[in-house]
Design brief:
Pfam families: PTPLA. α3 packs antiparallel against α4. By secondary structure, the protein is an all-alpha fold. The chain has helices at about 1-55, 60-65, 70-95, 115-145.
């Protein structure tokens, strides 16, 4: 009887250690996130103030700065966030069978959401570079006034 009580306390200690580890990780992430967000807003504020001081107006600020430059960093970060979120969801989707349809059923159709997510993740390999390079070409066209001729394929 005493050994089972000791086992219970050992398990509780292990659970508490795991919670502390998760808590430290969460705290570190939130600290990083808050610092990054503060730095981002600070850059925006400084950009807006410099623009206003130089030109005396806010008109034209949007066109010259947030959408043709920020995507260079934000677009890959967004894609990485999407892929990591899908990757983190895969074990749950597989265990639960979420949004999957197995045979036999009245529609006589089978669909496995787990494999659909994997295909979506793999589709980023050929599609992301094309989309990103397209955005870079659009940026160059708008900021430098270049005319870009798309090749017919």
């Amino acid at each position: 009887m005493a050994s089972s009580e000791e086992d219970g306390t050992v398990e509780e200690k292990e659970n508490n250690n795991k919670k502390r580890t998760k808590s430290a990780l969460v705290t570190a992430w939130l600290t990083f996130y808050n610092i990054a967000m503060t730095a981002g807003w600070l850059v925006l504020a400084i950009t807006m103030m410099r623009f206003y001081i130089q030109r005396g107006t806010h008109k034209g600020l949007y066109r010259t700065s947030d959408r043709y430059n920020f995507f260079i960093v934000l677009y890959p970060l967004g894609v990485a966030g999407e892929l990591l979120t899908i990757y983190a969801a895969l074990p749950f989707v597989r265990r639960s069978g979420m949004y999957s349809m197995r045979l036999p059923n009245k529609y006589n159709v089978s669909f496995d959401y787990y494999y659909c997510l994997i295909i979506v993740m793999l589709s980023y390999i050929p599609l992301f570079p094309q989309l990103y390079l397209h955005m870079l070409r659009q940026r160059r066209r708008v900021l430098h006034g270049e005319v870009i001729v798309e090749k017919d394929e």
